[in-house]
Amino acid sequence: MSETTFDTIIIGAGTAGCLLANRLSADPNRRVLLIEAGGKDDYLWIHIPVGYLHCIGNPRTDWLYKTEPDPGLNGRSLRYPRGKTLGGCSSINGMIYMRGQARDYDAWARATGDAAWNWDNCLPDFRAHENHYRLDRAQDPAFAALHGHGGEWRVERQRLRWDILDAFARATQQAGIPATDDFNCGTNEGVSYFEVNQRKGWRWNAAKAFLRPACMARPNFELWTRAQVSRLLFDTLPDGSLRCGGAQVWTGQEMVTVRASREVVLSAGSIGSPQILQLSGVGPAPLLQSHGITPVAHLPGVGANLQDHLQIRAVFKVQGVKTLNTLASSLWGKAMIGLEYAIKRSGPMSMAPSQLGVFTRSSAQYAHPNIQYHVQPLSLDAFGEPLHGFNAFTASVCNLNPGSRGTVAIRSPRFEDAPAIAPNYLSTDEDRKVAADSLRLTRRIVAQPALVPYQPEEYRPGTQFQTDAELARLAGDIATTIFHPAGTTRMGAAADPMAVVDTRLRVLDGRGGTIAGLRVVDAGVMPTIPSGNINSPTLMIAEKAARWIREAAV
Fold first, then answer.
1. Would you say residue 468 lies in a domain?
2. Would you please indicate which residues are annotated as catalytic (active-site) residues?
3. Where does FAD bind (predicted)?
């Protein structure tokens, strides 16, 4: 840390930050500093796919956030994992490669008035870093038009299969949901095994993909780990406008001031970025003043518009088929699982948290898939709890386009204090209706002939719950986050009073202009949450931002 002046400072070495560091430091004339509050990704369980079980809830790799008691969850508070290590959430997430639906990005373009965000203009930014296994050997022109090969972000098929999941897939087709061989072509309707960000049975996180070896070998690139940004620094220019000139960074021993001659890029995620902005005086003025912080820019949207995918977990006991519950119930079974992974890099230790996916409609009123299933050959009472002692599978279903909106707000002027996270789940009538209809659809799928041989028995929630009111309340009792917070620093048109960044991700100043030298590049800028897992859409956003930052320097 002997050098404290750089051209570009990137705050957060997560999914977006790693890609940005790679793209921007490729210019040998740009000195880039990447700051990460967590440590290096040298913990073995980060890299073994099933190791997410050891990373979530572990202070070595997780911020250990919890939500506020949520009325929609009948007063419950949830664990809210966020990656705190190189690679960020890509080091602890479900590894599912998912873009969402073309309509998501077309809606962003309409909402912001900027065609750069429509599906056709986002597709090249998805392809730019993709390395899809299906293009390793065979050249399929139709597939290649939608997917990339040779990029840093590896996409592979899973190295396992389960009889119970195959049966569930057949049951969904019997219920009228088609099979698909590509969830990422613009419409993700159908059932299939998920494709994952792995390489030969190992997790492929953003640090592996974008930092090593490229960035680490560049003399113009510097990485600080275990360094937490306490606040941004602003300069007032002669015309009265603002410029972000750097940040204060706590190293664990001292507070260091770093300066950026060109730009500061905030990529601390949907929770961290609004927290840092608020601590720096950028956010809702009443909130800042209540904590003794002088507002630099009154932006009511900072920390607002929090969206997330809430999953409702239905568990079904089964007979005559193996699931992980019993496979991993003995020392011998665990030893065989470990041996298979050691020899083949396959089997349960190579598992993503969810293996089979389904995208469909909760009811006929929707013209597009509005719900997603994550189906697993296991069951437990809650994440982190032991597996059940009987064979079972779990069909978790989430509303892809929730209307509920929550908040992220600092609790104090101290950067060490976690912010208050209030997702406000199930706070709209439509969200509660979708929850009830989703549970009914799950029951209809499970009743199909393909699953009859396994005698599925609804263990959770229980068939005694039938009415909309009962099922909606039940969802509040058993639902949990699927770890997709988005939207807390949303981009918008100039006339949008809740916008935080413009369509080039430059932070607004609350007076009709932008704060020079400051952008936000992470899932927080999403106006609405995509219809699927959000890690790869975050990379797409970072790909665009890197190009715009480079172009601005010319």
1. yes
2. 484
3. 229
